[in-house]
Give the backbone structure.
Amino acid sequence: MAEQLSIRDTLTETRVFSKRAVVATVLVVLALAALLGRYFHLQVIEHEVYRTQSDRNRIHARAVPPRRGLIFDRHGVVLADNRPIFNLVITRERAGDIDRTLTTIGQSITLDPVDVERFRKRMPRQLPFEAVPLRFNLTEEEIARLAVNRHLLPGVEVEAELVRHYPFGALLAHAVGYVGRINEAELIALDQTDYAGTNLIGKNGIEKFHEDALHGSVGYENVETNARGRVLRVLERNDPGAGQDLVLELDLEVQRVAQEALGAERGAVVAIDPQTGGVIALASSPSFDPNPFVSGIGSRAYAELRDSPDHPLINRAIQGLYPPGSTVKPMYALAGLFYGVSTPTSAVSDPGWYQLGGVGRRYRDWKKWGHGGAVNLSQAITESCDVYFYDLANRMGIQRMHDFSLQFGLGAATGVDQSAERRGVMPSNAWKLAAIGERWYPGETLSVGIGQGYMLASPMQLAVMTATIASRGRHYRPRLVQRVGGRALEPELLHAVEIPDPGHWDTITLAMEEVVHGPRGTAKAINKNLSYRIAAKTGTAQVVGIAQNATYDSAALDRNQRDHALFVAFAPVGNPRIAVAVIIENGEHGSTTAAPVARKVMDAYLLPRDDAQGPASPAPVAPAPTATAVSTDPAPPAQDPAAVAIPAAPAGPAPEDHL
C-alpha cells in the first residue's frame, strides 16, 4: 500500500498562531493595565493614606512629663527639689510577648514581684505606645546588664526621669509631705491625658493639697523609631509646662528648732502668724524620711513605720486629737464676759472642789486645798483655778460654750492646706444625741469647762484659737503656702469675733501675760532672760480616769497612761507676731515639758538668729505606745483609730493642771 504523504496546512497554522498571539497580547496588556492601575491607585489616589500608615510604623507621638514645681521656705531655701534617676520601661506594642520579655529581664536584674504586679495592673490602662515603668532607680550595674542584652529586649528602654528629693528628710515630712507612685485607684480617677508619662503624684501634705499647681502640663513629641522600636530621632516637640514653684510661710530654722525641741517625745508644735494665718512651723514627732516613698519603699520598711506604736506616719499637728485641758480657759473666760455671766471682778470661793447645787459629787480642783475664798478672772487664768471655770461653765451652759468656741476654730476643720485634717469635737446636747443617742448631763458641762470630757482638739486648732485671741478676734484660715508661681496669696479672714467691750480683750491678755510673768504664774519658769512679753496658758489632759477620792500617782502609772502636757502662747504681747501650740503626749507637766519647747520656738522666730536661746529642752524620753484614755463618765463615741491620742477625760479635773 502506497505510503500517503501528509501535506501541512501552513495557512491554517498561521491563522491559529496569530489569533493566539493576539489573545496573549491582549491578556498581557490587560494585566499590565491592571497592574499600572493598581500602582496608580496606591501611589496617587491613596498616597496619603499609605504614607500615614507607613509613618505610623516609624513615627510615634509620646508624652513628655513636666518638671514638678519646687518648694521653698519663706527665705528661699529649697525644701523639695528634683533629681534624675534611671527607670526601666516597656512599650507593650513593641515588646510582643510580655511574659517572655519579663523572663528575659529577670535573667539580667532582680525584679520584685510587687513591681511586676503593679506593672501588669497599669499596662492595660496606658495610652498606645506609651511606656509603662517596671523598675525605678536602676543602678549603674543594672543598666550595664540590660545594655548587654538589649538585642533580646525589643520595646524595653532605660529612661531618665526627674524625681522628687527632700534634702531635709524627716524635718519636713509632715508639713511638705511626699510624692509616690501612682497606684491603681489613682490611675482610674486621673485624667490619662493630663498624667501621660507621669509616674508620681502627691500623696499627702503640701505635695497632695497643691498637686494641680505643682504637677504642670504634659508635653508631646513625635519620634522616629526603627523596626525594633528604638528611638532614632525627635522630629517635632511640644515642650511641657513646668509645675509652679511654691513659697511657703514656713521658716526652716524655726521648724528645725521645733522638731529638735520635741526630741524623742511624741507630740506636735504648731506656730502661726496671728496677723495673716501663715503657718511658721508645723512639727510632728516622731517623724520619718519621705525620700524612700518616692521611688517605692520596701514592704518591710513600710510595715515597720505603719505598725510602730509611736505612729510616725500620723501628722499629730492636724490628725492627733487631744482634750485641750486648761488651754481653753482664756477663751471661756472671754465667753463669760461676752454673755454677761461674769465680770473681770467676779469671784468664786475655791475650797478645792465644786458641787452642782451644793450637793452630790465633788468636782475637784487640781490644787487639793483650793486657791482661796475669792478667786477672780485674772487669778483663775494665772493659777488655772478649776473651780472658777466649773462655776463659769455651769452658768453659761454647754450650748453657749459650743457656739462661742466655734468662732475660735474648735470643733471644725481649720481649712489649713494639708491633707486628711481631722475636725475634732466641740460637744453640745445636739452633738451627743446624734453621736451617742443620749441627752446631755450638767456634770459633762463642767468637764468641758476645763477642756476635758468629750472635747477634743488638734494642735492646729489650738494654735488657731490662740492666734484669734492674739489678734483680738480676727480668725484667719491657717495656710502653709505664701506664693504660687510668683503670685502672692492674700490672707483669708474667715470671720471676726465681735466683742462689744474692747476692754475684755485686754482683761484676757493681761491674765495670760501673768501666766508667764506673774509671781504665781503657772509658766513663770520660762521667763528667765526673756526680752519680750509672752501671753500664755498651760494645760494638762488626763489620759486615764481617777476615782473621786484617789490621788494622781505618776509613778504608779505606765508611761502611756500619764497626762498629756499642753501649752499655748503668743508674743510679743503688744504686737503679736507668733502664736504657738505645743502638745507633749504623756509629758505630764505643761510648765516644765511643753512650755520650754514653745519658748525655744518663739526665741528662734522673734530674736536675731545669733541671739535666739532659751531654757534647755527636757531630756529625751524613750517612746512609749500611744495612750487611750479610760473614763469614769459615759464614754465618748468610738473614734477613728488613725488618731494619735483621743482620751476621754472624766468630769473631774486633771490633778495638776498648772503643770
Notes: The mean pLDDT is 84. The CA atoms of residues 203 and 453 lie 34 Å apart.
